[in-house]
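[job 0412] stage=complex_fold ligand=pyridoxal-5'-phosphate status=START
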Amino acid sequence: MWQADAQSQVVVDLDAIRANVRTLRSSTPAQVMAVVKADGYGHGMVPAARAALSGGATWLGVCTLDEALGLRDAGLTAPVLAWLWLPGQPVGRAIGCDVDLSVAGLSQLAAVIAGAREAGRAARIHLKIDTGLSRGGAVAPEWPQLAESAGKAQADGYVEVIGVWSHFACADAPGHETVDRQLAGFTDALDVAKRLGVEPQLRHLANSAATLTRPDTHFDLVRPGIATYGLSPLDDPAVRATLRPAMTAHARVLLSKRVPAGQGVSYGHTYVTQRESTVALVPLGYGDGVPRHASSAGPVQLNGARYTVAGRVCMDQFVIDVGDAEVAEGDEVVLFGPGDGGEPTADDWAQAAGTINYEIVTRFGSTRVPRVYRGDAA
Ligand SMILES: *Cc1c(COP(=O)(O)O)cnc(C)c1O
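[job 0412] stage=complex_fold status=DONE, emitting structure tokens
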């Protein structure tokens, strides 16, 4: 599993991604759009996309046009939706490559019409309604105008309105009052669009949390991101048990040595040995995705035992105090993995760093740490 001469690596289990998508797919009659933005949440956009498609996803979701074009350049032909783009970017090229575009307002609609002219074909668009996240999307008072203009552009042959969609603010807190309110706002927007003659084939609203907890929000398509990678957006252990984390991050001990009692360790000496101890140097730091906020808190597994980061996480390395345990250079230190070998999980690191599991895996996978793949490459 270790690459020759690697001192640290991230292992991505493609079979886990495939199994997670299969699980999600079998839990709903809706189609599954696997969200592979941000380099597949750090797992590698293209390999993650292939594994998700082989697990039953029929759509891919990304943020940027670059990401969407990257999927096309890799030869993936599945439908792709890109939702974060600016007029002025290569919209015509994206349309020519069969990339579906989210449209949240009249200026984006105008850019899409111009892009369709340039590409010589109708643009496939998904109109976005802001039902309360207050991020992307048209707010309710703007919606009739947007739907009407899109309907006109459709009649003129410039666009095909494939979808109407929205995004939740608090679906990770099931029972939060905004979930029902956003769902109601979404159905209102669909009614308005219908009255204006816009009836898309795909209505979609659910992220991972809503996919896992609210079947009444699934409509025609669900958009799980984090759950695709086997992590849960919810605290519920029952939900967590249905998913398999795909990423393992580990390193090899670079150096181990005895230091005296009362010795400060790492920058700022925020950790001081209580007695003579062996300290081991782990060659991973915040330049590799280890959160500095996990200083003196992040858990690791080494030779079957658990230890905690001793003092500050540095840019390239951190230290653990193993007491009198025998540790040799080259021994494997696991930061996180699926957890079934007793190793910590991305959830444990999120807790140690005061963040969410999304940030742990996304940052880890997008650094200089070599990434290796396990499982069927599809
Ligand atoms: C990132 C994202 C998702 C996926 O969210 P998860 O919580 O990871 O499932 C779905 N839809 C949109 C618009 C997103 O930006």
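The mean pLDDT is 97.
[job 0412] exit 0
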